[in-house]
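Objective 1b: paired records.
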Amino acid sequence: MPGYRSHRGRLFEWGHGYAIHTCVLRPESRGTVTLDAQKNLCIDFNCLSHPRDAQVLIEGIKLARQILAQPEFDAFRGKEMLPGSEFHSDEALLKYIQNYGATVFHPAGTCKMGSDAMSVVDPATLKVWGIDNLRIADVSIMPSLISGNTNAAAIMIGERVAATIINHTITFPPADSQAL
């Protein structure tokens, strides 16, 4: 690729190279969305609060390094930019992850659909429990993350709710589906 995304302000830096990005597709850590005393929104992603998530990222970096160490890359290999040659032990990799890790811009699940005490919306209509005429129709209703980009899921959720509002007959999720 002609550039890479820098950890410094998420800017692109130009030059030749290649990259592998690691991420946790099914995180165990759970965050919160609350209001403070002044009713300001407080979002705590609580990233890496579950030790499994950090271990997945550490192992992902190690695997990426093994892949890029293969002889097929010998003619192209340059200096490792990130995390860098100084990060080899699990402890050093964890410190790097804690300092530079970020979301991949698809946080979801803050307004879970369901019928348990932690649910925010009714799974059939996506109406907010206890509030008349308010629905939530985005990926925040997903009780668990999907292993990929949330764009298609967001479109499907919006289409399903639009059909429900227009027809007053279609429910979410569709009767023939197993789960979102």
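Objective 1b, second protein:
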Amino acid sequence: MAPIHSLLHTHANQKIADRREAPDGTVFCSALQHLGIKYGELTEPMPAAPVGRIRDADLPTLRGVGQAVWEAVYSTKKQILVEVRRAGTSGGHRIPRLAATEPEAERLIHEVHVETERIWLAEPAELGNLHRGLIPSRAGTHGTVLPTLLFVNGETRPLGYAAYGGLIRAAVSGMPMDSVREMARLLVAVPAEFLDYCGLDKLGDFTQRFLACLDRLDRADFLAVTRHLALYINCLGAWNLHLFPWDAADPLRQQRPAETGSTR
């Protein structure tokens, strides 16, 4: 994750049509507020915005780190911290803090900012409980957990980058605020209600408070609140991907045409 609010709406100066064709070591920025580093084969075709390169001499180390991260995400769940900073600058991280003039919006921004800082490097308690099967609402099929985890991951990711990202781009582009507010009600209320039911109660509370003060927000305050909510939700999405039990799908392997005898 990159703690940069403007990634959600800034147009890239340079794009390539398919990130699979970029050389290993390419560093990408993403409208999902991700910083991606290509260390090996990619299978998903996607336009991408390259912003840098790893030195050739460091590529063997990069591939080793990539493999370690893959193993951590897939099975061990060990946290491997990667810090990206300009040479000569101090380490550590800081989430930029925006401000609003509307009192309720300012209080909401403060709490979302504090929570985002808290979970940046530490597992969100509600997601940890969910992945351990502690679901107060008992959401799940016949008491199982995996389908609920799938639904939570599938709702959280587009809520952060598509719904909130879209709202931010609409407000930045000058869309009339009455239309932007109506879009907000249509796009964020239902997914947040479902995620609250699944156990993400902080997200549910933040969303209700955002919608409650929505009509009092001018463009600047709206952007301040939604930028913070987008970063917070995208951070939840990143944790979802790390905590998800990917190895549970080991018995369900893709079949290749050569393996099945198919000529299609």
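The mean pLDDT is 92. Helices lie at 59-76, 103-119, 125-131, 146-172, 177-198, 201-213, 219-243, 257-260.
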